[in-house]
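Researcher: Re-running this chain for the archive, since the previous output was lost when a drive failed. Same request as before.
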Amino acid sequence: MTLYDAACKVRENAYAPYSSFKVGAALRTVSGQVFAGCNVENVAYPEGTCAEAGAIAAMCAAGEYAIAEICVVADSPTPVPPCGGCRQKLAEFAAPDLRITMATLDGARHVITMAEILPGAFSAGHMDKS
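Model: Regenerated structure tokens:
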């Protein structure tokens, strides 16, 4: 199963009663494992949690910490990029050349790297005093 297929499949499980905007994400780790996540909304936080965050949480729960590739899918007119918070989360677990594929259900795709989508990302190196 491709990352696109996995993201489309998990997207169907999204809990989006307020926006009706379902998003799915699937990532592949450097070891080759695939993890998927979908957005989850709630009354107190109708924007909800993002699909990318769900996939990252599943990855970490399995003891993996390095993303090799990710695909994000939504039923939208154009591909939807990860939100700002998810961009920072992705940067925590990925190299600057991480390939991020954003896609729609209609087949439109846009590929960008981590460095392009979040230039100047905050990292642990910013906390070094040496």
